[in-house]
Amino acid sequence: MSFKYLCISALLISCTGLLCSCSSPLSSSVTESGSDAQNLDVFAMNTYMSMKAYGDNAQKALDDSRELIMRLESELSVTDEGSCIYELNKNGKGTVTDSAAVLINKAVEIGDRTGGALDISLYPVLKEWGFTTEDYHIPDDKILADLLSDVDYKSISISGNEVTLPENVQIDLGALAKGYTSDSIMEQMSADGVDSAIVSLGGNVQAIGGKPDGSAWKVSVRDPFAPDTDMCIVEIKDKAVITSGNYERFFTGDDGKNYWHIIDPADGYPADNGLVSTTIIGDSGLECDALSTAFFVAGKDKAVDYWRSDRSFDMILVSDDRKIYYTEGIADSFKNISSMEAEVLRLD
Ligand code: AMP
Ligand code: MG
To answer: Which of 16, 41, 310, 314 could staple 281 via S-S, CB 3.0–4.6 A?
Structure first.
């Protein structure tokens, strides 16, 4: 099996889906460009995950990573009875795991830094839309307004591992859990002695080092207007490439309009502030995941202001009028393979 690009695309997802559906174990071994690569595909966190590692310790690193993914899923899932998040939402207070505490603190921090665009207390609103159960419908205005009146991540109280939520407040870490998971996989694989690996968790990509020959990984980003095709390619080493898009999970309402899973805390409706896809490229999967969701909500101008004041990451934004904007840090490796116009964003 040849992986020219590790795609943020349906191609990879359907590819791993095929592997997962066969009766053989989840791992397989391939030889690529003369190097031994070990692959492992897992379905977890409601998504297909595909991992590839090189070197003598690759198989152990992948096995450890699978265990890690399963542990994090059982801790962080909002729907699994017994997860600390499920218990917290049920009881309004609880002791969460160290991982959950890191995620809650990061979500609050990014909520503050994005003017509330990221708000993990939207969970009751997401449930009302049916995004958690796939029983989709457009909520009644009054019900939505009632639910929205309790949404406020600032009302979450966290001290160490102890968390308290006011009445009617429930949280969901879906906006940043996969980024945290890919960070954790990178740490696990490095501890196992791997220095060349790449993972895609439902299209969110993160890599250790470059390819075994020292060259950069080529990662493609999906075209939000044609999600079966790729829009652009970037080259990375030791980075995460994390995308939020309106095409990832949506339904078509009785009114013929599409409604997607990223909600604007301002009105409780799918965020529609001019962007259809946001990709963040940086060192921390957790930070990239949180920002990709937050920028999708905040829109292009706020995303660019944030980037100019922070400078620790790069990004690729796609606007609803079919334009690509990418930041100057990736200008040398960015390759536009779509028919859309692409404009580079400069720091000054
Ligand atoms: P992502 O695919 O990383 O952009 O995350 C999308 C997921 O985050 C959704 O499926 C919801 O579980 C959750 N979510 C949606 N809107 C928001 C928001 N404004 N703030 C925080 N979490 C959100
Ligand atoms: Mg995200």
So the answer is: 314
Dist. CA 136 → ligand 2 center (Å): 21
Quote the CA–CA distance of 277 and 293 in Å, as a whole number: 9
Spell out the long-range contacts of 35-41 with Cβ–Cβ below 8 A and sequence spacing 24 or more. Answer: 35/212, 35/213, 38/62, 39/1, 40/65, 40/66, 41/16
- The number of residues making up the chain comes to 348
User: Which residues are placed with Cβ below 5 angstroms of ligand 2, an ion?
Assistant: 175, 289, 292-293
E strand residue ranges, 190-312:
197-201, 204-208, 217-223, 226-236, 240-245, 250-252, 258-260, 275-282
pLDDT for position 24: 27
Coil vs helix vs strand at 203: coil
Q: What is the mean pLDDT of residues 128-151?
A: 95
Query: Is the CB of 224 within 6 Å of ligand 1?
Result: no
User: Which pLDDT does position 132 carry in this prediction?
Assistant: 87
- Residue 35 pLDDT: 62
